[in-house]
Recover the amino acids of this structure.
């Protein structure tokens, strides 16, 4: 979020899938894209993407992960 804000953008941070879904209705009109971690503690970025797509959102959506495979 600091990088986005440093570039003049606005960022909203949610620590869980539940929190992301709770703030979504209030912030969706302000966003131009969504950047989500794959792991949201109580769910996944894919679940968040699915939920907002079901609600009609067509925002560009990028899922990232810090997970490193041991293989």
């Amino acid at each position: 979020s600091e990088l986005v804000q440093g570039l003049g953008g606005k960022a909203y941070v949610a620590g869980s899938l539940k929190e992301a879904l709770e703030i979504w209705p209030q912030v969706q009109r302000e966003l131009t894209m969504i950047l989500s971690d794959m792991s949201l503690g109580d769910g996944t970025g894919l679940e968040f993407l699915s939920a907002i797509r079901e609600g009609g959102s067509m925002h560009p959506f990028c899922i990232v992960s810090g997970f490193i495979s041991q293989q």
Q: What stands out?
A: Residues 17-27 form the longest helix (11 residues). The mean pLDDT is 91. The first strand starts at residue 34 and ends at 37.
